[in-house]
Amino acid sequence: MTFDLHEYYTGETFTAWEYFGAHLARTTTTFRVYAPDAPKVSVIGDFSDWEEIPMKQKEKSGVWEVKVPKTKEGMLYKYRIYFKDGQHCDHMDPFAFSSEKRPGTASRIANLNFRFSDKNWIKKRSLNYNKPMNIYEVHLGSWRTKEDGSPYTYTEIAEELADYAIENGYTHIEFMPLTEYPADESWGYQVLGFYAATSRYGTPKELMSLINTMHKKGIGVILDFVPVHF
């Protein structure tokens, strides 16, 4: 794909996630990461038994890339970033769409293909700008929990939460941060990956399903975005 790296360098692009990260296409995945000072970068993961697959830098751009065959949704991976002294660190993907469930720290190949069925909501939304809003803020992990104290998944909580909002006259649900973060005890403000729906409640497509359910029931969804807590 074509991508304007100059706009990325100057902080003017809003589509970097479409270029960087792990992009699955049938049985191959293209990995891209920005590591301008690294003399060498590899990708490691389930698909290689965690052995290194070297990445190539694109014309001294700082962008490293490789296309890996025999990959599939759900596989774990990391980037092995080398330093000039020969040492290295294994790093999660800052543009990953999904992560390994804590306490693991690997990124996960995700398929974001999801068919929304919320056309009526989208059409109605543009007519609601001048109507009152009543927003219910929710921390998904503690709004309801199972008998053993564990949280419900995105799909398990969707119907109940939507019905609660309707019953109590709310027009919108605002979720505290659902981007990946390390500690269950937090409200999600210590963000590790801005493009990954937290795996503690399920997959990215399950979050899409939750939003789809809300929209079909006439409830808007607001996602709390906290870039200053990275």
Largest sheet: 5 strands, antiparallel
Report helical residue fraction. 10-25%
Q: How many helices in DSSP terms? A: 5
Give the SSE string.
HEEEEEEEEEHEHHEEEHE
Task: Write down the overall geometry.
Answer: globular
Task: Report Rg.
Answer: 20 Å
Class based on secondary structure composition and strand pairing = alpha+beta
Distance between the termini: 28 Å
Extract low-pLDDT stretches. none
Could you tell me the mean pLDDT? 94
Structure in words:
- The protein is an alpha+beta fold and 230 residues long.
- It has five helices and 14 strands.
- It has helices at residues 5-9, 119-125, 140-143, 154-167, 204-216; strands spanning 21-25, 28-34, 41-45, 53-54, 56-57, 63-68, 76-82, 88-91, 107-108, 135-138, 172-175, 179-180, 193-197, 220-223.
- Helix 4 (154-167) packs parallel to helix 5 (204-216).
- The two termini are 28 Å apart.
- The model has no long low-confidence stretch (mean pLDDT 94).
Walk me through the topology.
Layout: H1 5-9, E1 21-25, E2 28-34, E3 41-45, E4 53-54, E5 56-57, E6 63-68, E7 76-82, E8 88-91, E9 107-108, H2 119-125, E10 135-138, H3 140-143, H4 154-167, E11 172-175, E12 179-180, E13 193-197, H5 204-216, E14 220-223
Parallel strand pairs: 10-11, 11-14
Antiparallel strand pairs: 1-2, 2-6, 3-4, 3-7, 5-6, 7-8, 7-9, 12-13
Helix pairs in contact: 4-5
Provide the descriptors you would attach to this structure in a database record.
230 residues; alpha+beta; four-stranded antiparallel β-sheet; 19% helix; globular
